[in-house]
Amino acid sequence: MFIDARSLPDDEKLDADIAIVGAGAAGLSLAIALEGAGLNVALLESGGLEWSEEAQDLAAGELGPQTYATPESVRLRYFGGTTGHWGGWCRELDAVDFEPRDFVKLSGWPITKSELEPFYRRAQEVLHLGPARYDDSEGVAALAGVKLPIPRSSDIEPVLFEFSPPIRMGEVYRDLIDKSDTRCFLNATVSDIRVSDDAKSVTALTIARDGGKPLSMSVRHAVLACGGLSNAQMLLNADAQVAGGLGNATGQVGRYFADHPILIGYAAVLSFGPEAGDVFATNDIPAGGRRYRLAFQPRDDYRRAKGRLSCLATIEPGGPSFSNGAFDRWETRWFGQSETASALAALGKPGWTPRVHMLNAGLETRPDPESRVTLTDARDRHGVRRLKVDWKLNDRDLEDYLANLADLGRALSASGAGMVRIAPDARERWPAETNWGHHNMGTTRMGADAATSVCDGDARVHGMANLWIAGSSLYTTPGAANPTLTLVALALRLAETLKREARA
Amino acid sequence: MRDGMNEGQRRSARITRRTFGAMGLALAGVAAVRLWPEDPLQALAKREDAVALKALGQAPALQELGDVEAKLKAKLNGGSYDEAVASDALHGAFVVLDGWHVPEATALAAVWLAQQG
Prior knowledge:
The complex is a heterodimer.
Chain A: E1 2-4, E2 13-21, H1 25-34, E3 41-44, H2 53-57, E4 61-63, H3 71-74, E5 89-90, H4 95-98, H5 113-126, H6 137-144, E6 156-163, H7 169-172, H8 174-178, E7 183-186, E8 189-195, E9 202-208, E10 215-224, H9 227-237, E11 261-271, H10 274-282, E12 284-287, E13 290-298, H11 300-306, E14 311-315, H12 332-335, H13 338-345, E15 355-363, E16 372-379, E17 385-390, H14 395-415, E18 418-422, H15 426-429, E19 435-436, E20 467-469, H16 484-503
Helix pairs in contact in A: 1-16, 5-16
Chain B: H1 7-35, H2 40-45, H3 50-56, H4 68-76, H5 81-91, E1 94-97, E2 100-103, H6 104-116
Antiparallel strand pairs in B: 1-2
């Protein structure tokens, strides 16, 4: 059921077995999974059922020197959260993403992919996806009647994204929450987290609202599901009883902030073959009533052998064909000298239609403690300190991408499917001309060691008995895949943990 | 020396004549011409995409490849241009031209053809 917190009397006493702060992808998935468990669950959403400027203002903040999306534009504060403008890209992380890697400092999740597998399967359903076929590019391509440009056995292998419709979770699950036992408090901004005298457990949440005094909700368990930025903001801001904020004894909260650098036009592909051209020209692969997109990624074993990070490179559709002169109207900076590209294109077999396509990619990055979210002295209207996002990018991560691109070029040339161009000024463009995926990750990372992490492998804040985190802020390392599917899987896994804990 | 043969070749021809007669010698000559592999450089010049290669070979960035004929012969190693390109692609032997990763064999062939006029 929905309850507008603004309508409650000032002396309202609230309590919950489990209070979930934030009704976005993580919070809603958790609430849905807790349905029917016989627990008193409260879902606290800062915004309303529809987007509003008033609620969105609470997300505002500052940026460091690196160009990045303003905090108020990168996420949405209303029921359904950032799924309200989600692109729907889904892909699991790979097994190697969870492993400790000696070439990635502080890598190694405290859980393995196999532990997450059952929850990945259920996350497919939550996000209205089909059976997971992310690594079955051959099977999906065969179903769709297209040929892969390079074989699965390549060092850089063809893999798949699947698109969620994309679902707007605030619309899809509104009725379910409305008819459920879960109480969803709208326009309810958690402005403080109160803890016991020994500071080892959460006792209550302070709920600020417009037009009334703050309310207090007593809780047995509290889950922060406010997104990759605000999970850290909430912990840092809760410093009235604990200096430096909750879970921050080792100063790790807010560090290791990561997003996927999205490099647009750093590379191009010249496709030769008509079969490969079909895939490149349309990009999306419709198969079995689902929509997939082809991507190129270094294989797990290749990454381990080369000591290299991952990337997911996609070829943008609609590249110019050399047969119709459209090339001249395109940005030659992406493709180099047109004479060179034209001559190379003519090397294709007679009757083929060479095309040039822009190659874009999302990059994995190494954890960097200096890339971080901090608080400023400015406060929002509920007294919560605003945040500052200082995203740091490292040259070594770009070098891994360029090496992966060169290997992709080798694979495409070897199969006769095409050639790759790396922009000669790629290193000059980085990091100024870098886009991002709006994927806020890492600020409350999981880890076995409290000295370098905020949460344990169960997503419980180190040193706290009943404070938990849901969302992509948990990511120990970001991988290259878009984060929504994994954060939903983690939330579903947390639901099982909370059921056990709450019954104990 | 009127027949253009050296002593060894003349001896070989005498043996062949004794063995197969004059007609046999003529047939053996035709077969030799047909079976003898064409010079890889001559085959390169006859390719359908030779014009495109020649255009590519005029790129200023490729003019620093040095003695391309010797390098190209070594690259082809008696085999075909397509084989050399495939081998370069497989082993990552590329020349970077305006950012494009071009197989070394393609770059060498392009400059050599451009030099032939």
